[in-house]
Structures
1.
Amino acid sequence: MFFFLYIIGLVGIKSISTVLNAENVRIKEAVSIKIGIPGGLLYHRYATFINTFINELDIECIFSIETNREILDMGVNSCVNEACLPMKIFHGHAVFLKNQCDLLWIPRIMKCKNSESICPKFCGLPEMVMSGTKRKEGVIDYPLYMDRKREVRHYLKKLSENLGCNENKALRAFKKAVISYGQAEKGIWDKEYPFIIFLAGHPYNIYDKFANMNLIDKLHSYGIGVITEEQVFDNNKEEEIKHLMKRPYWLFYKNNYGAGKYLVRNQKINGIVYISSFSCGIDSITIEMLKNDIGDFPFLILKIDEHTGEAGMNTRIEAFADMLERRRIH
Amino acid sequence: MKITFPHLGDAYIAVRLLCNEMNVDCIVPPLNTMETLERGSRYSPEEICLPFKLMAGNLMEGIENGADTVVMVSSNGPCRLGEYGELLKSVLDKNGYHADWILLDTVQAIGIRELLKRAGLVWGGKKRSKLKLLGALKGVYKVIHSLERMEKEIHFRCGYEIERGRLKAILYKCKKDICHSDSINDALKIIENYSDKVKEIPLDREKNPVKVVLTGEIFSLIEPFGNQYLEDKLMDMGVSFSKRITIGWWIDTTFVQPLKRARMMSKKNGFLNYCIGGYAKDTVEEVIEAKKNHYDGVIQLLPLGCMPEIVVKSIMPDMAEELDIKILTVVFDEMNGEAGYITRIEAFIDMLQRRKQHVLYGY
């Protein structure tokens, strides 16, 4: 008899405690964490991916607005002055989100798919932002090695811990995001214009309309269509970098150099426009290598920085368009 | 086959001795001058960092003096140094300086076998005794280390000197003599002689000079032309300073104890927890060490546009505040208006001096 009572008592305590625990869990989930995602740097390229991932996770999220003068000014004030324009813009977005979110998501991309890197500043981005914006707490700053599956899982595990959601849910969301990114249309390839040029550069310079002062629309208005490096297959790019002494270890060097050379060699374009931010270390090498290797070919380099004087840029684009026109006639 | 190589501080002394010992024809390009920089920057891309421009100038002069093979080191980090070889070849070829290239890459990038094969190419296909090579390498290693030990001693003693300028004179005379010596043993003897002389210089032990740590980007630290002869200026000012990043340190961390470095790189220090390429993390650790060892200030040197050091520069205000140490960042490029640098460094040293004497205002 006592034995039965004892067992019933045990079960009762256990059930009560599980109910309590469940409530605890529910309370934990109910405290929603607001995550802030700065809309700078690689957000321009991976917007589909990030949006799907956040949607699937079902967490509250705040995106920064499109880059504008105010954001740039905030960035310039909070960033170290030797950094390049995209870095300053990213700082501006971070300052914009600083007081509106619980967690600020700053990706620290150490290695890309085939162990390429992007730029040392990407590896030190969280430190730069933390010291620039004076926000030391509540920053997601763990390293992301995309060349190793285990590391990506580790990243997701940590992320789900911080966001207070299930790890499997995060994994599922990640997989869905990868699929949706794979299906999404990437890059630009205009076919209805008389001229077509290869618009080279980093995605954050190409797609940020404020930073590049609406470059793509300007080119269109002169009857120049645009093709970007995403439209060239990876194996074609690989083919073009084979003759180099050393395999390039920067993702955007490989992409721009490989795609540019492939398009020139197969005569798919009339010219190249390279949009580059001032004091970009990677572009300083890519531009020179590309220029030396393609020989006599129309090549326009546009440098952008935080001084937004538009007239100089307009003149140069116009001159380039005239030059393409004359090349066709003669 | 005649090899040439770009300058990196006093590395040419060691390379020349090694080549002499192993009977390899080697052409040492003239030391860096304003002319070297002008020639280099004429053909280099506009926004590349200063070391590239100097190296391009060196190699042009080396090839003009009759060299036909260039030996370069390379790296695999996200820093620009790894792509130097490729771009230098492209730039020099375009301007009519043709040469064969031997790129000594890191083990992680090409594997140890390929590295040894490439290093073997330096000997020009001739068979040479491996024992002799090992002996020569050991000797050169010894030369570098003893020279650096002496240099460090001089840098430290500078602040305590009674008659300013004598230690500096000894250092320069020693380097000049080594350049004229023919064998490793001679060089070692010369260094030993001069080390004894250093100890004989009278010092004022009552003095309390300003103590500074030099840190930053590795090329700017090692190559005196890259930092506008900053060390000489500090010696003239009577500042006692230390510089850990030298060629000997580089050889130690890259070849002799790579595991130790890997372990150091994985340690977290609270300011910059990950290795981001270049020597950024080392710079951060230098500052922490400087505080531990009671130095008064830190001078960070970097060439314009150096990517890893920019990250460090952005953390510097935090570090200065948290560790209570003064940090000066000096950026170098090919415009060498010397007066600007001197003013800033003098002002920094003056500020440290005043802080030391407990002046309660003005810093």
2.
Amino acid sequence: MAEKKKVLVIGGGFSGLTAAVETAEAGSEVIIVEKAPFFGGRVTQLNKYFPKLCPPNCGLEINFRRIKTNGDITFYTLAEVESISGQEGNYDVTIKVNPRFVNDKCVGCNACNEACPVEIPNEFNFGLDKTKAAYITHNQAFPFKYVIDGKHCKGTSCAKCAEACKYDAIHLDMKPETVKVNVGSVVLASGWEPYDVTKLDILGGGKIKNVITNMQMERLAAPNGPTAGKILRPSDGKEVKNIAFVQCAGSRDENHLPYCSYICCMASLKQATYLREQYPDSKARIFYIDIRTPGRYEQFYWKVKDDPGVTLTKGKVAKITEDAATGDVIMVAEDVLAGKKITETFDMVVLATGMVPSTRASKIPGDISYTNEGFVQAASLKKGIYAVGTLKSPVDVAKSVQDATGVAIKSIQSSRRS
Amino acid sequence: MAEATVIKPDLDFVKGVIEGGGESLKKCYQCATCTVVCNVTPDDNPFPRKEMVWAQWGLKEKFAGNPDVWLCHQCNDCTAYCPRDAKPGEVLGAIRKQTIKQYSSPAFMVNFVNSKAFIPVMLLLLAGLLSAAGTFAIPDGEIIFSKFASTHFLQFVFTPALLFGFAVGALGVKKFWADMKKSAGVSSGDLGGSVSATASEILGHSKFKMCGVSKDRFTAHFLVFYSFVALGIATALGVLYIDILHIESPFSLTGTGFPVKIFGAVGAAGLLLGVLLMISNRFKNAEKVGMGSYFDWLLITIIGVIMASGILSWLTRVAGIATVAYSVYFIHLVFVLSLFLYLPYSKLAHMFYRSAAICFLKYSGREKQ
């Protein structure tokens, strides 16, 4: 039998974590490379996720535990793959690991965060609030140690965080490192980015304060989000009692993303329930081209549709403006079934923006071909390289997990062929 | 059980729309972005989304007496923002072509004037008529165009052609108006007031000013429109001088017929500018809204050639280059005759149907609020 080689997993979101733990628990050594300072990917940013509408920790926590307790898994955060060469059973990979400036001695006491004078936009909350250059995304982040944002930190000239740290956990002189590994197979699981709303000019994306994205809505509803789970609108912190969802904001649109992003209808229906559960006197209106709730998700659609506080209107919104005096959002759509062009005012509007594969902006080094939209062309991948989940097409968490589980066995097989 | 609704698609109508520049028709998935970004549509029963599905399904009868397709000024905001690249602006243009075909008689003329054989046939026709009149040769001596085609000959051929064009247009409008009344269920209204409001809207080009992406259409159309007015005045003055005052052509800017020349020159310059603007707008907006159809380009070409040959024949006459002057003048006549016959069957027929549709909107009270 051939030598048992390691398996490299690029991406530490739900797909990558699944592929990694399944592979490792079958007895293969695994290396996970995550670009961000923390694992869990997009799912960590959600308030609740399908199919069971549980919070992200249910699911993620068990996977983090499986990583921590499995001696066969090595992981790198703030790391990027620089090159991949070779063939099935024998890939040489170079990984660049950027400095975290915080070592394993960190206990998560928050002293560095309090001491840090540099405020930065909180990317984890999609810019809805600010954080410091020394930060942790939320209280169940993994790995549970702070990170210092190398881009914004003033470095050794400031060092207020290092002074505040009682555990000698902060070293601002850490340098990037290069790690070279040899693996038998590679799993690509670098996930997706939300579509850039500033490109949606007629929808006021990024310009109108109370027009937010569906991912921002998740953060607004999440207990560990900027408002501690209270759905308050960004401009004045007013409780949102009257909300509209704009479906296909950029998706199914040849000027933006020509494909259906698969998850946005479910996301908006789900987010309508966030609001309805929080404020019983609230109203939600979803403007759609077609409501797409694949398979058994249809039942969820029926449930939301039966709520008298939720209105579904067929017709795509194509004009959004702001009432400068009140901060309210005015939008125009055609109510197709009524045959009327309508203008309505809302406290806040959520753009159901779609999924862009991370490989559209940052290609994975190596001989990989992509579709025009930036998705990995799975059929053209070299033997021993596998793409998972949203890198191939927009899918939900459940489908990504199924895909990753399937890829685990393939990557194990490849790692033993040489 | 309730009666089933039976839809009878007219496949020839669908084919006609697709072939007439609406090849993107079937891409539409009814999202209604077009209706929302349109600045011209009324809010009640807005267009062009409903027209897109009617055309896809071949519901030809829905377009009989539908003023909305004519209220569209082809700003192409809809096309620019269409998520499916279904080009509603172009499709509505193609639907208008079908409406023109429906209302103008004889119907075969629509196909003829918009076919590639039209201009060559007109050329042969005019050459034949001039030969029959015995003047189809380059005359000697001083260049005087009436030696080539006498004023009487022109009046004999061109006046009936123009009158024919207007008569066909007027008959079409009569049928169209009756259909609009029938489909809107409107029996009476303030016709006089509607006509004067329509005239002031058309003269002021107010609808064009609402266009978003193709804002420059306003300037281009404004120039071409008023240049035609100037050329119409020049022609009327020509008739006055020649037939009533008996002052013979050619006129010059310094001679007695100078007003003819002034209106002619201003009209020609305006047309030159307007047509160039129209062409440049089409290229400029091509990426967003497409290049337009043959139907659309033919009108620009005919007007462009009339204007270019008009100016060139004048200049070569003044310069004394007989061969060029007479040949170019002949081409000029071919295209002017083409324009007159083309008038009620082509894109130019919009002057009849769009005016009628705008007037009907006022008459029936269906205006944008």
